[in-house]
Design a protein that fits this description.
With 93 residues, the chain is mostly helical. It is built from 5 helices and no strands. 71% of the residues lie in helices and 0% in strands. The longest helix has 18 residues.
Length: 93
């Protein structure tokens, strides 16, 4: 019993400390946006990944970096209007 409590308290601590780890009330859209932003930030931070993307797309590394930075603003488009309504309906069932 104490082991289970310890694991849950560690998970709660991580969720409070790091934004991208989510929380119990996170919507699917928010989770996907965090995932896309984390991926883009990782690609920008690793120069060899930018080089691979640039070679495969026949683009300059600067242009690839610029496009990734622009996509970080809204990586998945606008939030769907009914996203929170769907989650509320799931809780009722």
């Amino acid at each position: 019993m104490t082991e289970r409590f310890n694991i849950y308290s560690q998970l709660e601590h991580l969720q409070m400390k790091y934004v991208g780890t989510g929380h119990p009330d996170i919507t699917r859209y928010e989770w996907v946006v965090n995932h896309h932003r984390d991926s883009a930030a990782s690609y920008i931070g690793h120069h060899h990944m930018l080089t691979m993307f640039g070679v495969s797309e026949n683009e300059s590394i600067g242009r690839i970096k610029y496009r990734l930075l622009q996509n970080m603003v809204a990586p998945c488009g606008k939030e769907p209007k009914g996203a929170e309504d769907e989650d509320d309906e799931d809780d009722l069932e």
